[in-house]
Design brief:
The protein is mainly alpha-helical. Among the domains are: 82 residues, Winged helix-like DNA-binding domain superfamily/Winged helix DNA-binding domain (Arc Repressor Mutant, subunit A, Orthogonal Bundle); 32 residues. 45% of the residues lie in helices and 3% in strands. InterPro entries: ArsR-like_HTH (IPR011991), WH-like_DNA-bd_sf (IPR036388), WH_DNA-bd_sf (IPR036390). This is Winged helix-turn-helix transcriptional regulator. It comes from Streptomyces kaniharaensis. Pfam families: HTH_20.
């Protein structure tokens, strides 16, 4: 009888579920490590966090099962590294991206026009821009870092129970692109 209950509990913990994965201290710490380091293995995570590699491995697999992380290309035959998901680029995604950018712009203009209608504690935003000089690899790394930070809050979209009191939808818009000179509009930046 005890054994069958243990099997049932184990099945419940490891069965894929629809929806977001509930927040857990180990998973939160693992996502933070991925955001900071890009890729980790369960052994590396265990050494950094002070947990067993088995516990870290279990929670990494749970995060992957729910689409919050994915396997990274292996660096050797034995290690199983993990990373935050990388977006797939397709023609349909480009069309959707154009639509999304238009909606983001429209939403921001609506915010600016109606900001004073919001409760006082919400009447500010954190809009900023900067021009930085990056290599293509650094541009990718900056984008990955932003995605890793935002991934910590992804479960709140489909799991209202994961939202802290007072949470509201907030647009997080990041656009990273090389600046092209006005005098050579048809040339690629690497061709100059």
């Amino acid at each position: 009888m005890q054994s069958s209950r243990l099997c049932k509990v184990t099945e419940d913990l490891t069965a894929p579920t629809a929806g977001a994965l509930p927040e857990h201290a180990v998973r939160t710490a693992l996502l933070a490590l991925l955001a900071e380091h890009g890729t980790i293995t369960s052994t590396e995570a265990a050494a950094r966090l002070g947990y067993s590699s088995g516990l870290c491995s279990f929670h990494l697999r749970q995060l992957a099962r729910h689409g919050l992380i994915e396997e990274a290309p292996p660096t050797d035959g034995r290690a199983r590294p993990w990373q935050l998901p990388r977006p797939q680029q397709t023609a349909a995604a480009d069309d959707f991206g154009d639509l999304a950018r238009g909606l983001e712009d429209e939403s921001y203009q609506r915010w600016l026009a109606r900001r004073t209608d919001a409760p006082a504690e919400w009447q500010h935003d954190d809009a900023f821009s900067a021009v930085v000089h990056l290599t293509p690899a650094e541009l990718t790394a900056v984008g990955d870092a932003v995605r890793r930070i935002l991934a910590r809050f992804r479960d709140r979209e489909h799991n209202p129970g994961a939202r802290p009191a007072g949470a509201r939808p907030v647009a997080a818009v990041t656009r990273l692109f090389p600046l092209l000179p006005d005098d050579q509009p048809d040339r690629h930046p690497d061709e100059r």
